Amino acid sequence: MDFALTTEQQTMMGELDKLARQQFAPKAFSWNDEVPWPNLRMLADRGYLGLCLPVGVGGAARPVLDGILAAETLAAVCPHTAGFFHAANTGPAGHLARRGSPALHERYLRPVARGELVVGIALTEAQAGSDVSGLAASAETHGDTVVINGTKLYTSHAMVAGVFVVFLRLDGAYGSILVERDAPGLTIGPPDAWMSGERYCTLTFDHCEVPVGNVMVSGSSLRDLMNEYLVERLGNSARAVGVARLALELAEQHIQGRRQFGSRLVDMQGLRWKVADMVMRIEASQLLLYRAAARAGTGVPSLYESSLVKLHASETAKFVTDTAMQLHGALGVSRAMPLEWLYRLARGWTIAGGTVEIHRNIIASHVLRHTHAEAPSPTPRTDLGAGVPTLPGGNG
Question: What pLDDT sits at residue 149?
Fold first, then answer.
């Protein structure tokens, strides 16, 4: 079993890290609601923004793992830029790349790869958060037109996206449709701010009409449709790992340079243990992430592996950013440092994309085989006591 990355992947990560530190780092924590267009265009000019998109529209058609490595590398320097990179590769644009027609690719993916268009995703509803079976937004096909009705909450990049990937009920089954920002019948509500400062909007579809050619998935079961979201979870997990790496780097710099009680913080055993715990969790998250992405190839990962990654990486980011704040003392909770923002960002990831509780249920169901029905009881082991000596008073 080879755990080494290829020379090409290592070169890519080195180039992206150098670019991010030289060009993106100075403004990394000051973008607010802006799209980092200059950063996206620099990535596009170097052929990175369309890393996982088809070659025919200016992409590189690289596997999911390469997109994951790039997103993690960028997030370890500029999490904001990494979020838009994710949207263009392992996020909603990736769904379009896998399931959209050549005409949709040409119209939308080419400007994505050039750094000129942001694609948003509309999934969550009031009664369909963790329980996606509650999807109520619906669409019906009428000749060459699809008519959409319903409401979507917490739509990513809604303030700036030019087009949205919408998951809904379609002609009695499930499907996904591309809807342009200015489509008749679509209303984009005022932004709501999350604790991270990110802003999401409510989309309201009132007899919203789009061409039937904008349909990407139709006649699907809910399970098959939601499998398309699994790559999204890997992309979000890559960002979580990158943010954890950034927090660890800041903590290392602080404890190596600060002295208290006549000693450097880095020489205090209790603080060194904290660093070890941070590193251990980051390494474990990376291994789970890379395995899931490598097995996905250019497709989608398994539900089980994507849940393992999402759960572990989001909790790792939360733990590492919190610990880094603790190591900084009062400075850690000051807005003079980015750590408090990184923590707020990481805290939301334990909820968004499926709560950690939901992912624990998915993992347990996979292991215990209780997803749909009670599994047959295993044959009892009879050899477990073999060779165990009998102690006075018994072994109980």
Answer: 98
| Same domain, yes or no: 233 and 360 | yes
* Contact criterion met (CB below 8 Å) for 314 and 350: yes
Which DSSP string corresponds to 78-140?
A: -HHHHHHHHHHHTSHHHHHHHHS-HHHIIIIIHHHHTT---EEEE--BTTBSS-GGG---EEE
Confidence of residue 114 (pLDDT cuts 50, 70, 90): very high
pLDDT at 384: 54
Q: What angle do CA 231, 234, 240 make, to 5 degrees?
A: 150
Q: What percent of the chain has pLDDT over 90?
A: 83
Q: Establish if 345 belongs to a structural domain.
A: yes
- The strand pair at 163-170 and 119-122 is best described as parallel
What local confidence, expressed as pLDDT, does residue 32 receive? 81
Within a domain: 339: yes
Nearest to 369 by CA among 287, 301, 304: 304
Contacts of 96 (CB under 8 A, 6+ apart): 104, 105, 108, 109, 119, 165, 178, 216
Chosen domain end from 185, 220, 255: 220
> pTM, whole model, 2 decimals?
0.91
Q: Could you give the residue ranges of the DSSP H alpha helices within 174-302?
A: 222-227, 230-257, 269-296
Q: What is the pLDDT of residue 129?
A: 84
Q: 113 and 125 share a domain?
A: no
Beta-bridge partner residues of 163: 119, 180
Residues 319 and 281: their CA atoms lie apart, in Å, by: 9
262 three-class SS: coil
Q: Which residues contact 40 (CB under 8 A, 6 or more apart)?
A: 49, 81, 84, 85, 88, 115
How far apart CA 369 and CA 377 sit, in angstroms, is: 11
Q: Do both 174 and 201 map to the same domain?
A: yes
Residue-wise pLDDT for 63-112, tens only, equals 999 999 999 999 999 999 999 999 999 999 999 999 999 999 999 999 99
Query: Residue 317 corresponds to which amino acid?
Result: A
Position 155 scores a pLDDT of 93
Which structural domain, as residue segments, surrounds residue 152?
121-220
For the chain, what is the largest distance between any 2 Cα atoms, rounded to a whole number of angstroms? Answer: 83
Question: In whole angstroms, what is the distance from residue 335 CA to residue 322 CA?
Answer: 14
Task: List the CATH number of the domain containing 299.
Answer: 1.20.140.10
CB 167 within 8 A of CB 99: no
